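Model it.
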Amino acid sequence: MEDLIVKNVRIVRPNVREVVQGDIGVTDGRFSQCGENLKGKRIYDGKGLLAFPGVVDAHMHTGIYSPLAEDAVSESRAAAQGGVTTSLNYFRSGQYYLNKGGPYREFFPEVLKISEGKFHVDYGFHLAPMDGKHISEIEDLVEKFGVSSFKIFMFYGSHGLHGRSDAQRDFLMIGPGERYDYAHFEFVMRGVQAARERFPEKSSQISLSLHCETAEIMTAYTRIIEARKDLDGLEAYHESRPPHSEGLAVFIASYLANETSLPTINLLHLSSRKALTAALQMAEVFPHIDFRREVTIGHLVLDTNSSAGVLAKVNPPIRPREDVEFLWQKVLEGKVDWVVSDHACCRHETKAAKHALGNIWLAKSGFGGTEYLLAALLSEGAKRGLPLHRVAELTSYNPAKRFGANAKGDIAPGLDADLVLVDPKSTWTIRAAESESTQGYTPFEGLELGFKVRTTFLRGEAIYDNGKVVGAPRGRYLHRPTA
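Modeled.
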């Protein structure tokens, strides 16, 4: 007798093309078996729905624009609503987040304390070494705190989060002797590689992620585009952060990875033909580097003609439709490793300046979308022939394996019973008013989808069902790499 039987579902597994009709058994919060006519203490009728492994949203920013204690609750509710069971969040010292600098040995325990008991889904953090002290702490972060993934924001040293800025040192909250530049990026890579060498048994799941944009190019182009009167909105922002800025940053990051012998590199939210082409070229130039390529659902759905306007401002920018379709082409070719939300809840009163509504230059960057990640990828993917098992790989298996969430990512005996049931015959329209997020708007407003998340299970317990989040937060911190 199993603790729970999820009966009558069509099971979608990564790396398995066939969708199998059957039951799923759960015991002690883990998958025990898949089969027919299984017996259990509790029965949940799946009514023929698709059963995917719980989504691992590997790129979120919980606590960036609102206090972490609030964001962890509301945005993990939105995650559960979208079938997400694991939330991996980029976090750093400096402005936004906790708005403080200092060593991670003091900073990160505070992050963990605030987070405890708040998340409705399991969670972890990627950390960004912002100064030399942080680099010296990388090995301790791996060993003591279970942080196995790190990040570089390549444009932060001389370009602002929302546009060009001359106040970057205040923003970064680093000392007068520190510089956030290419030399720092090199030393971060050497620090991550030193950790991989110290912990060889974990080395394949210790990695570095990079936001690839080139500050100098963006600053110069922003001055030019701001002065033009014939461009505004998303098109202007796209022109001010041109795709070749992304491509050049990919080249630089890749060369530094080769120079420092760091083989585990993740190229984040590639948004354009030039950026993704550069990433594929670098994989050929440096075949010994294990590059992973990420795309966001926003860059796969929205384009510069979107009616969302400034509400869709994000870094890298939303691109023209030809870039969107190129990204889809590479998704279908298997050249993209995972798709994420890059969820950063930016409430309307924060997003747009009250005195200059519609001004793209004064709007904040980023928006939420974790609640739409799976349904939108399935809906848009179905139009283009994306197989279901590839969706399971892109949203669950691949990020789980890369980032050391080893009990996640598949429907297989012994793994955490993280499961999402999806109705493939439900046509619905995205409305921000129906989201669990506190953002209050969405740039996806009005998008019609053909798949809908019905139920989300976290370790065998329903956390979202029948249109509602169920129960108190029960998410656990993932000390990665996990068992």
